Amino acid sequence: MQVLGIDIGGSGIKGALVDLESGQLVSERKRITTPPSFHIEEVTESIATLVSQFDYSGAVGVGFPAAVANGIVLTPPTAHHVAGWVDQSVNDRFSDATGCAVTTLNDADAAGLAEMRFGAGQGVEGVVITVTLGTGVGAGLFMDGKLVPNLEIGKIFLASHDDVVEQYMAGRIKKDHDLEWYEYGERLNEFCLHIEHVFSPQLIIIGGGVSRKHKKFMSEDQLKRTRIVPAKLRNEAGIVGAAAWATGNITRQN
């Protein structure tokens, strides 16, 4: 079965057809620029434009950069903080604009779902936390493979640094603060030790763009009790997870 998955990012909205048996992209990945305003009407129009490029009429899954429950946006979009999204049914808006049945979930949840089904978390029982390091810090929380949605882990306040997590060790922070890899690794390790203490997971999966260079800043045995591994699907995870969510292909827990 092939389903269209879409991942809404800060700079680009990306989509592709996904084979839900293998988790592989089976079409060219298409990308359009995210509207700088991030206004709801402009983003909705951009999604409709992207869907039209695939000449597609089936179910569509969309990963969205905010907390989402049953298609309703609960929090302002990460890194945009634009008014007009909260309490909106993006499922209805996107469905009306595209003519397809659209199902929306948090973008980090989508990436985590893909890793649990097709990637580094496949077959792992107990508590697993997937972390996406990019403009912010996203995360997915799973219990025996089932998603507990909207873990806003990037908003955790670190009293020792007088700031929230995503202002301390998001992927962009390495560049913004001109950190060496070992310095960035120390920040990530501090964060993961905190997560280990609070959640006692069996596994932490690190994704996002910086995970491509995981050998420079992390190792599987760096935590006290928890194994930590790089994501396998990396930048395709959001698209794959969104596509799977669109058809209920992965067990949901709301």
Please give a structural write-up:
With 254 residues, the protein is of the alpha/beta class. It folds into two domains: 2-109 and 236-246, Nucleotidyltransferase, domain 5, CATH 3.30.420; 123-231, Nucleotidyltransferase, domain 5, CATH 3.30.420.40. It contains seven helices and 15 strands. It has helices at residues 40-52, 90-98, 107-118, 166-169, 171-176, 181-199, 237-246, and strands at 2-8, 12-19, 24-25, 30-33, 60-64, 68-69, 72-73, 102-106, 127-133, 137-143, 146-148, 157-158, 163-164, 203-208, 227-230. It is globular and about 50 Å long.
What's the rounded overall pLDDT mean? Answer: 91
Principal-axes shape call? globular
Can you tell me the CATH class of the largest domain?
Alpha Beta
End-to-end span in angstroms?
Answer: 25 Å
The count of helical stretches stands at 7
Radius of gyration: 17 Å
Q: Based on the coordinates given, report the CATH architecture of the largest domain.
A: 2-Layer Sandwich
Q: What percent of residues are in strands?
A: 25-35%
CATH topology of the largest domain: Nucleotidyltransferase, domain 5
Number of domains: 2
CATH evolutionary superfamily of the largest domain:
ATPase, nucleotide binding domain
Q: Supply the helix-strand structural class.
A: alpha/beta
* Parts with pLDDT < 50 across at least 5 consecutive residues: 250-254
